[in-house]
């Protein structure tokens, strides 16, 4: 791809890399950082002494960019060029250029802390500030200082934040690849529209009717809105008078699209045809779509945020930052002067948008990350003073420590336990790794593997949750298992077992409207988890599920294992209220997401904050399993857990678990609508 801006700087880039262990490269999105840097290093011979790794925060980018590079080099994907994402490794002995998610590289560094297999590690898309890339930045800093062989680290960013990264690496060289961005004219709306789907539709049609050729990229917030807008656009475009304007192709683009649908955006349109690409922020910097001349920016993005005070997640539609808005606009000026239509007034941009996006580390639950860092056993530093580009809050570190303590991953002094070490080896969130380990002790590993795999699917595989699904369903799933009154985890298990009994028949999934791709993924994940468990947990055996399935079951062992794995996610039934209250976090009234009642105690997979907070995926557990956890909670001493490392935190300070409200204490009243 000789015409990509970055290629003209090959000599300079290689020279700088030769002379420095760490180099930061700033270049506009689409300048060729992701696809070309690895190939330059390959040409220079860096793949002779090891693999060139390129990390990506998003799975879809790792897959799509590696596919492109394989194509450019004329090799088969999975051979000289491959990718590795969680639960999917398409690399081989011959792989020289490897695209992998930042999470996969973190995991690899557990078994090989020096990362000796790599001659170069490129941390791509550092501007996205994903939690895992932030941790990798800290690890690379240590590694470059210590590793005997000459590892090269390149960090790429599409924004000027690169300067901050260069400072972090003791003012390492920073190369800027001038993008050949054409001017983009920006148009603001007079006011915020009441519906940005409608407003995008109108703007898109205006462009189609009035403006010369050029593709239109529309930024929406999520799959639902994208699907809505795609349908509406198709409908409207079809009703336009034939010959009144050029043909149109309308393409959705988001992370949960099947790969064959994702790559469609890379094929150029036929002549005299305009493409409308309706995308999430995945098209902001991760994937570059060529041919775009018009951008419509809703100004919003869907962001998952975690509140360490309440233990709740929320999936909020929030305003983008100025940096994001400018990235979006920039997509219009790659091939010629473009136009960007912002569906918000300039006042909102100037006064309300944050300058930069809040890094993920400051809006995530850190239990998995803290466990990971503890398991690295880094000498000479207190893990909680790890060298972060932007540190997380004390509150979220405390929250992580409390969660880890309750599930026995760390002891009362904050040191990692042997259970914690085993947990860190599983590519799962701490609650599920803990469940697997416990299930192995109780002889119900097979069932627990299924539950963990079902919960690792990206889509919800429970048939009776979404009301909109219900409407679409052709066959009401009356004869599908219902969890036998024990809740979602058990239902997920039963569904998979039923599919197993039906010889993993695809038609069976279709009949029950279960996403086939999701179910096949679960089967593969289950197999991989089972192999990992056999390696790491002595005496583990994945007994075939059918052996334990005869007759009526109360799933006691599995539920007990889940109770221990989810010890920090417990709720107690409120006898005088219709719902449960959370234990462990600030006491809150919450409902299971199907409004069911599952006995006196439940554990939940996560708490979702909406106007009526609810527990996603619950499992009924028994009082005698809960009591020891409550005892542990009462004795909890946060200050000791953090080894004094969190500064002022004292035992019993506000918000800490040791101040657990007394039974049936004050209940937060919440509106009844969800
Ligand atoms: P950057 O990392 O600087 O944003 P990339 O290397 O991702 O830039 O993109 C460079 C070019 O390669 C763009 O024109 C983009 O459209 C193209 N490209 C990237 N991935 C693919 C793909 N899977 N198929 C086709 N073209 C691609």
TrEMBL record:
Keywords assigned: ATP-binding, Helicase, Hydrolase, mRNA processing, mRNA splicing, Nucleotide-binding, Spliceosome
A Pfam family annotated for this UniProt entry: Helicase_C
Residue stretches making up the Helicase ATP-binding domain: 14-178
Bias type Basic and acidic residues, positions: 660-673
Catalytic activity: ATP + H2O = ADP + phosphate + H(+)
Gene Ontology cellular-component annotations: spliceosomal complex
Catalytic class of the enzyme: hydrolase
Region (Disordered): 463-482, 644-673
EC assignment: 3.6.4.13
Nucleotide-binding found in the keyword field: yes
Signal peptide annotation: none
Domain Helicase C-terminal: 200-377
PANTHER family linked to this entry: ATP-DEPENDENT RNA HELICASE (PTHR18934), PRE-MRNA-SPLICING FACTOR ATP-DEPENDENT RNA HELICASE DEAH4-RELATED (PTHR18934:SF234)
Domain of life of the source: Eukaryota
Xref: InterPro entries: AAA+_ATPase, DEAD-box_helicase_OB_fold, DEAD/DEAH_box_helicase_dom, DNA/RNA_helicase_DEAH_CS, HA2_WH, Helicase-assoc_dom, Helicase_ATP-bd, Helicase_C-like
Protein name: RNA helicase
GO molecular function list: ATP binding; hydrolase activity; nucleic acid binding; RNA helicase activity
């Amino acid at each position: 791809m000789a015409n990509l801006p970055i290629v003209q700087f090959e000599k300079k880039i290689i020279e700088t890399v030769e002379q420095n262990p760490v180099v930061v490269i700033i270049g506009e999105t689409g300048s060729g950082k992701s696809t070309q840097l690895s190939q330059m290093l390959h040409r220079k011979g860096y793949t002779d002494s090891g693999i060139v790794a390129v990390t990506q925060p998003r799975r879809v980018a790792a897959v799509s960019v590696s596919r492109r590079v394989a194509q450019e080099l004329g090799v088969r994907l999975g051979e000289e060029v491959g990718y590795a994402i969680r639960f999917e490794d398409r690399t081989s002995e011959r792989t020289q250029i490897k695209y992998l998610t930042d999470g996969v590289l973190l995991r690899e560094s557990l078994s090989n802390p020096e990362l000796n297999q790599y001659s170069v590690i490129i941390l791509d898309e550092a501007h996205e500030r994903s939690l895992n890339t932030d941790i990798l930045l800290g690890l690379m800093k240590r590694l470059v200082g210590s590793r005997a062989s000459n590892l090269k680290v390149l960090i790429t960013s599409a924004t000027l934040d690169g300067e901050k990264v260069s400072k972090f690496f003791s003012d390492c060289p920073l190369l800027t690849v001038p993008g050949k961005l054409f001017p983009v004219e920006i148009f603001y709306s007079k006011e915020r529209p009441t519906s940005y789907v409608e407003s995008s539709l109108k703007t898109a049609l205006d462009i189609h009717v009035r403006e010369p050729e050029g593709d239109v990229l529309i930024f929406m917030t999520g799959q639902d809105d994208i699907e809505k807008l795609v349908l509406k656009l198709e409908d409207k475009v079809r009703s336009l008078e034939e010959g009144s304007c050029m043909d149109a192709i309308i393409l959705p683009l988001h992370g949960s699209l099947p790969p064959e649908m994702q790559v469609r955006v890379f094929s150029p349109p036929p002549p005299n045809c305009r493409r409308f690409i309706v995308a999430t922020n995945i098209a902001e910097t991760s994937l570059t779509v060529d041919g775009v001349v018009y951008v419509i920016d809703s100004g919003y993005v869907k962001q998952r945020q975690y509140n360490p005070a309440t233990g709740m997640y929320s999936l909020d539609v929030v305003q983008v930052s100025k940096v994001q808005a400018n990235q979006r606009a920039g997509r219009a000026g790659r091939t010629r002067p473009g136009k960007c239509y912002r569906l918000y007034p300039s006042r909102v941009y100037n006064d309300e948008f944050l300058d930069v996006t809040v890094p993920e580390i400051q809006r995530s639950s850190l239990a998995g990350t803290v466990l990971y860092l503890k398991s690295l056993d880094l000498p000479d530093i207190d893990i909680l003073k790890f060298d972060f580009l932007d540190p997380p809050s004390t509150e979220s570190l405390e929250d992580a420590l409390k969660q880890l303590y309750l599930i026995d991953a760390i002891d009362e002094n904050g040191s990692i336990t042997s259970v914690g070490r085993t947990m860190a080896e599983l590519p799962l969130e701490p609650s599920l790794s803990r469940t697997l380990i416990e299930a192995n002790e109780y002889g119900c590993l097979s069932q627990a593997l299924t539950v963990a795999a079902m919960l690792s699917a990206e889509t919800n595989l429970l048939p009776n949750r979404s009301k909109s699904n219900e409407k679409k369903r052709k066959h009401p799933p009356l004869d599908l298992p219902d969890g036998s009154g024990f809740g979602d985890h058990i239902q997920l298990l039963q569904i998979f077992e039923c599919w197993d009994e039906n010889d993993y028949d695809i038609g069976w999934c279709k009949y029950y409207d279960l996403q086939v791709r999701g179910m096949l993924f679960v089967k593969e994940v289950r197999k991989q988890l089972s192999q990992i468990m056999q390696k790491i947990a002595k005496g583990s055996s994945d007994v075939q599920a059918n052996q334990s399935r005869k007759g009526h079951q109360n799933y006691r062992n599995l539920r007990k294992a889940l109770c221990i794995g989810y010890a920090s996610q417990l709720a107690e039934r409120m006898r005088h209220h219709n719902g449960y209250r959370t234990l462990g976090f600030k006491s809150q009234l919450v409902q299971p997401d199907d409004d069911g009642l599952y006995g006196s105690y439940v554990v939940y997979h996560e708490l979702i904050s909406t106007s009526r907070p609810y527990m996603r995926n619950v499992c009924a557990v028994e009082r005698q399993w809960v009591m020891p956890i409550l005892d542990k909670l009462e004795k909890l001493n946060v200050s000791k857990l953090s080894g004094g490392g969190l500064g002022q935190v004292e035992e019993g300070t506000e918000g800490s678990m040791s101040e657990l409200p007394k039974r049936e204490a004050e209940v937060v009243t919440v509106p009844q609508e969800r």
